[in-house]
Amino acid sequence: MSNKHLFLKPGFVRAPLQNGVGRYVQQLQRIVLKFCKTHGGSRGMRDYIEQDLVDFAKQNPGVVVYLKPRRHRSPVVVAEYLNGDRVWMSMHNKSQSEVTKWIEVLRTQQGDVSGTRLRKFQYTDHPSIQGPWSPFTFKNPELNTAKLPDPKFGANNRLPMSATEQLRIMFEKQRLNEKDLKTGE
Predict the structure, then answer these.
(1) How is 69-101 classified by DSSP, letter by letter?
(2) Which residues does 79 contact at the CB level (< 8 Å), separation at least 6?
(3) Cα gap 86→158, rounded to integer Å
(4) pLDDT of residue 151
(5) Strand ranges inside 6-132, DSSP E
(6) 26 half-sphere exposure, CB direction, 13 A CA radius
(7) Which of 12, 19, 47, 124 is exposed most, by the fewest CB atoms within 10 A?
(8) What's the predicted TM-score (pTM) here?
(9) The domain that contains 69 carries what CATH number?
(10) How many structural domains does the chain have?
(11) Cβ(91)–Cβ(78) under 8 Å?
(12) Is 153 a member of any domain?
């Protein structure tokens, strides 16, 4: 087992501000597009800026968009979120459609969750003193030592007769009646 988790920041994975309960709060706060005006690796980023950036800014008025031209550098997108996370993504030699897709991914996520060591797997604002529910919470403990299949624990003895079984019984009765009629003649 590795100790890689010791170097990750601890935290919880949960929707901040109970997102989606009252209203949706977009988590992306700021996005910085860094690119070179002449470098060939920035072509997809420049095409995105020329064709799609104005539409993105109109559709997302809560997101601040910064353009930062840099000489002879690879294109980079830096996204900053409400929880303080910063996600840095290289866009070197990506096409305009790929840049559009990655910016949409950054827009819809809530920060860098993958770099977080989880303290708990569940989180709630109103914790229960009984613990988390599981499918085995209210099961009979005799089930642990029973030899299965056991009619005592089976659900089939409580279910009504299926339609197939009813048809089979009707067919058997009809066949017996036909035999009785043939032998009675």
Answers:
(1) E-TT---EEEEEETTS-EEEEE-TT--HHHHHH
(2) 28, 30, 31, 32, 86, 87, 89, 106, 107
(3) 57
(4) 74
(5) 9-11, 28-35, 64-69, 76-81, 86-90, 116-118
(6) 17
(7) 124
(8) 0.56
(9) 3.40.30.10
(10) 1
(11) no
(12) no
Q: What are phi and psi of 175, to 5 degrees?
A: -65, -40
Which of 47-51, 71-75, 128-132 comes out lowest in average pLDDT? 128-132
Full domain range(s) for residue 108: 7-118
Specify the residue for token string 């539409």.
Answer: 55
State how beta strands 28-35 and 64-69 pair: parallel
pLDDT class of 182 with cuts at 50, 70, 90: confident
The DSSP code sequence of 143-170 is: GGT--SS-TTT-STTTSPPPHHHHHHHH
User: Span 65-86, mean pLDDT?
Assistant: 92
Does residue 128 form part of some domain?
A: no
| C-alpha span between 87 and 156 (Å, rounded) | 54
Q: CA 12 to CA 52: how far, in whole Å?
A: 35
Q: Is 2 left (phi over 0), alpha (psi -120 to 50) or beta?
A: beta
CA 104, CA 84: separation in Å to the nearest integer?
19
